[in-house]
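Subject: Protein record for review, amino acid sequence with backbone structure tokens
Why sent: The fold of this protein is of interest and is recorded here as tokens.
Notation: Tokens come from a learned vocabulary of local backbone shapes, not from coordinates.
Attached in line: The record itself begins immediately under this heading.
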Amino acid sequence: MITLYGCLRSRASRPWWLLTEAGVSFSHEPVIQAYRLADPAAADAPFNTASPGFLAINPQGQIPALVDDGLVLTESLAMTLYLARRYGGDLGPRDLAEEGQILQWAFLAGTAVEGPALDILFTLTRGEPETETGQARITAATAALARPCARIESHLAGSGDWLVGGRFTVADIALSECLRYAQPHPPALAAFPALRGWLARCHARPAFQAMMQAREAEPV
């Protein structure tokens, strides 16, 4: 039995989307971030990343975490790639070459895209975009995204609708979920029409829509 710990206002969205795409049954254990609570140790506090029960699963105290038949994984990209290989059928790689390509895009997402994309998101959500510091941060993050986005744009312009194998795969989930953080600042992606079209196709998928609806139903 698969159990996914976390909330969808976190990187738990990645394995959740994959499992939903694959039509795999799983149990969801809501866990929220301790920093969102006034007192995460209070007797009436919801299950959170500082709760002893959760720390027994992930001593690092971060979400998501995944348990599958005794296997515990605590990194969202690793668990999403694992789930694709084990349960995802054509969402995962068909051969070693495709595995290398999927890993390539997932690692690009985690190393070159997520950091600056999150800088944009956090600056906007913290109400700082009009400050001098906030503007400088967004400008720097947009510049940092330009190089990986140009790489993605070039690939998509020559490969069709999806990143690997001419079909939707876990690579599309991993990369689009990181790029989603930059979308609230349209100039960051404005120069990349093929990328924006691909992102729209990813977000039009019923499994993504279902994930976002569940996310919106969670407490803010």
